[in-house]
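Design a sequence for this backbone.
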């Protein structure tokens, strides 16, 4: 793994040399200045799954490489994600913390571990199962959020879709190169030995579709139109119940809907946003004050006594 980090550092330095050659400041400037025929510079994301094991085997080299990449690699389109299950000072050192301002803390055992990650207590009170605190670089206090669980099957579908896209692009570029220069040796995609030099590679069933009609990886799942209609219908029924609740109580807030309807934060916030869009509740006020419930117009045929 140290060798991988060293390769990433060499790639970063090579990208800076390319930037200097065309007077570009960062990857966005570089991709905007290169011609349409040149290859755009891709983004890299380096994910370290368990930092504790790396710091145990090669602490000095790992700390130096991570600090240098975190300081300089972002402008070249290379980003780092490091994680550990043992947040101690010998794993998440001061030099690493100083160069990673964006941090996420899940449930930890003690306030000491929370201070190592976030420089303040609070993570020891989390409930687990994705409950987390997110410290943004531009925020003074961490934000409590709900992390999403992704199963192995879902991860395989996403990575399989990405690999399929790479093969489609390689297939298309290989066919164009074969038409432009028939004598050039094509190493990817593989061409049958019996194919003629001036014949482009045969397109397979995984040929790229037009961008306008391109299918996403979730189109291959079993979620059809019926599930979408059912979910929309369930949301409508819950929305009517939520409207009746806030009008009966004379106040509206996200926590109120969470307690009374026994739903999550995201769904409760969406219902409040729908009510605000319909003009049923007022805008959010400062602090934790509940929103104002606006009066509805009386329906035709109803008198004031019935409305009261």
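Sequence:
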């Amino acid at each position: 793994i140290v060798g991988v980090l060293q390769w990433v550092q060499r790639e970063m330095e090579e990208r800076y040399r390319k930037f200097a050659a065309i007077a570009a400041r960062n990857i966005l400037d570089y991709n905007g200045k290169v011609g349409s025929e040149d290859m755009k510079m891709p983004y890299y994301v380096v994910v370290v799954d368990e930092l504790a094991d790396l710091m145990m085997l090669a602490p000095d080299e790992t700390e130096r490489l991570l600090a240098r990449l975190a300081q300089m690699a972002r402008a070249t389109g290379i980003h780092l994600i490091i994680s550990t299950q043992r947040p101690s000072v010998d794993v998440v050192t001061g030099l690493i913390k100083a160069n990673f301002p964006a941090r996420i803390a899940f449930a930890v055992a003690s306030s000491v571990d929370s201070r190592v990650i976030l420089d303040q207590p609070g993570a020891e009170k989390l409930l687990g199962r994705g409950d987390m605190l997110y410290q943004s670089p531009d925020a003074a206090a961490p934000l409590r959020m709900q992390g999403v669980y992704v199963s192995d099957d879902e991860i395989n579908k996403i990575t399989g879709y990405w690999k399929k896209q790479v093969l489609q692009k390689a297939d298309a570029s290989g066919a164009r190169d074969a038409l432009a220069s028939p004598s050039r040796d094509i190493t990817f995609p593989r061409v049958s030995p019996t194919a003629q030099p001036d014949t482009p590679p045969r397109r397979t069933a995984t040929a790229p579709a037009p961008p306008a009609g391109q299918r996403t990886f979730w189109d291959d799942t079993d979620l059809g139109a019926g599930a979408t209609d059912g979910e929309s219908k369930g949301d409508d029924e819950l929305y009517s119940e939520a409207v009746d609740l806030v009008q009966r109580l004379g106040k509206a807030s996200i926590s109120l809907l969470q307690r009374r309807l026994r739903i999550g934060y995201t769904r409760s916030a969406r219902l409040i946003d729908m009510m605000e869009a319909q003009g049923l509740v007022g805008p959010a006020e400062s602090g934790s004050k509940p929103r104002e419930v606006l009066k509805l117009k009386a329906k035709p045929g109803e008198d004031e006594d019935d409305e009261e």
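The radius of gyration is 27 Å.
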